[in-house]
Amino acid sequence: MSGPLPFLLSIDALSVALPAGADRGLALNNVSLALAPGEVLCVVGESGSGKSMTAGAVLGLLPDGVRRSAGHILFEGRELTALSEAGLRRIRGARIGMIFQEPMTALNPLRTIGDQIGEVFRTHTRLGKAEIARKVLGLLDDVQIPQPHAAAGA
User: Fold this and answer.
1) CA-CA distance, 104 to 93, in Å (whole number)?
2) Which end of the chain is more exposed for a tag (fewer CB within 10 A), N or C?
């Protein structure tokens, strides 16, 4: 009988190569980290230090011409770098996600935040409208957004 996985996410010796002609050969060189279930990990660094590139590599969302050149990425014990695009798509949003740092590309100011959070549940679950609304309000409350109902735009 196997026990719980020691890490939810582990990145081991990850290197990401930039396209020919870039200002340097690697965007990431030998990056390693591990995240246990229930743990919060903050990756901090100045602009261009590789935070978004690391997350993009985990999710298989690297820019055109940029590729993982070395290393392993395990999520829930599964080697993500071995998955097809369809396999990654099944995990993205349902099991793992990313909040992009540029709000004008991540959030649509013409839609309510409640609708945008709810979109994740509409896309990746079979929950009904009322349950999605409850989950959205619960998430806003969890992160201590004042007046979650008003903030959701419901």
Assistant:
1) 19
2) N
